[in-house]
Structures are given as C-alpha cells and as structure tokens.
Specification:
This protein has 230 residues and is mostly helical. It has one domain. It has helices at residues 2-10, 12-15, 22-37, 39-63, 91-97, 101-114, 118-133, 139-158, 161-189, 192-201, 205-227; strands at 67-68, 72-73, 79-80, 83-84. The strands form two sheets. It has a two-stranded antiparallel sheet with strand order 1-4. A hairpin with a 5-residue loop joins strand 2 and strand 3. Helix 6 runs antiparallel to helix 9 (161-189) and helix 6 packs parallel to helix 11. The longest helix has 29 residues, at 161-189.
C-alpha cells in the first residue's frame, strides 16, 4: 500500500483531468437517463446496477467482519449475496446497504469526477469488480462482472481523455439514476431485503422503503450538482 501511495503521489498531476463543462455533463446524464428509463435498454443495463447492489452487500459485510459466501447474479437482474456475521452483529447494516449501494457508489464517483479524478474512478471501479469477482460463483454472474470490468479496464488503458471522461461521467450518472429507479420500484412492490430487515428488527417495511427512497433521491440531488458544477 505504501508503494502504491508513493506511486500515486509521484504521478499526482497526471491523475487529474479537467472536469467537463456543465452542458456536456448534462448531455451524458441524459444519455444515462435513456439507459435507465427505457425498459428494453434497462433489461441489459440493469445488470450493472445489480453488480453494484450485490457488491455493496459484500463490501459492507466484509467491513463489518462478516464472511461473504457465494455471490450470484441472475439473468433476470436479481442477485444473492449471503453474508454470515459473528453473533449477528452488522447483519442489519449489511442488509440495508444494498439498495443504497449503487447511489452511494455513484455519489462517490461524482465527487471524484468533480475534483478531476476521472481516470482513477475507472481504475477504482475495475479494482472493486476484481475483488467482487473472487466471490462470484455462477457462470452468468462471472461473465457479467468480467464484461463490465473488462470494458472499464480497456477505457482506462486507452489513454483517450475524452473517452475516459464520458465513461466516468456516464457511470456516475447511471448509478445515481438507477439507484432512484429501483428505489421507486421497490417502494411500490416491496423487496426481500425489507422483509428480512423487518423480521430481524421489527421495524415496519415501509420505514426501510422510505429510507432507501430518500437516500437515493438525496444522492442524485447532491451527485447531480457535483457533476454539473463546472
């Protein structure tokens, strides 16, 4: 880690790019909105959301000292990430974070992009996907993570600043917008995570729905302002 930190410090200037003007950032956001809003496109792009959702469960579970089991990503856009916690501690937070995960990842990406760390956003996403891949056990999930990570890797290695900026901005917008879309859907039809949380805490499902919806909306508001700040 120390070697990596020294390397990044030495090449600090090369890691920073000029953020895009607000008009261009908005156009990329509109493109991401099309991928999220139209059902035919969403049937394909939803798998990126699912990766972020299940990745959030796995990341929080690991941080809270849990053991992540076999992650599975399915063709219908659903996924499963079993996490066992010693003594049950941390299970609630791990279960709760899933539907906020994509929005929080998007917010983090928006913040880094607004500071000019466009290429690092892509590399960070590649690293997180590589870590998640270690726990993925079904063929479809494996191929989905490989395809997503491979695409981001090729863009990050391309050396084309314009392409890197479009993809990094697009990724941030997509995560923020898809987080809100799914939160709205979950609010209407329910979710297994909410039922599991109700069972373990006795807190009504509607409370979890409201928290997810409010969190996703807040992340989109703040993240959108960051992406359009130049």
């Amino acid at each position: 880690m120390l070697v990596l930190a020294l390397h990044l410090a030495r090449h600090h200037d090369s890691l920073i790019s000029r953020p895009l003007p607000a008009g261009q950032a908005l156009l990329i956001g509109l493109g991401a909105a099309v991928l999220v809003a139209f059902q035919g496109l969403w049937l394909v792009t939803q798998h990126v959301y699912t990766i972020a959702h299940e990745g959030a469960h796995a990341l929080m579970g690991s941080v809270r000292g849990g053991k992540v089991g076999s992650v599975k990503l399915h063709r219908n856009g659903s996924g499963v990430t079993p996490v066992s916690h010693p003594g049950g501690r941390g299970a609630v937070l791990t279960g709760f974070i899933g539907y906020l995960g994509p929005s929080l990842f998007g917010l983090a990406a928006a913040r880094l992009v607004s500071l000019g760390y466009i290429r690092p956003v892509l590399w960070l996403a590649v690293i997180l996907l590589a870590v998640l891949l270690l726990s993925v056990r079904n063929p479809f999930g494996f191929l989905t993570v490989i395809a997503t990570g491979g695409f981001l890797f090729l863009v990050a290695r391309s050396g084309r600043a314009g392409l890197e900026a479009v993809v990094a901005y697009g990724l941030a917008w997509f995560l923020l917008l898809s987080g809100l879309r799914v939160a709205l859907l979950v609010f209407r039809i329910g979710a297994d995570d909410a039922e599991n949380l109700r069972t373990s805490t006795s807190v009504p499902r509607v409370v979890w729905f409201v928290l997810w919806l409010a969190g996703a909306a807040a992340a989109l508001w703040v993240g959108g302002r960051l992406l359009l700040s130049h």
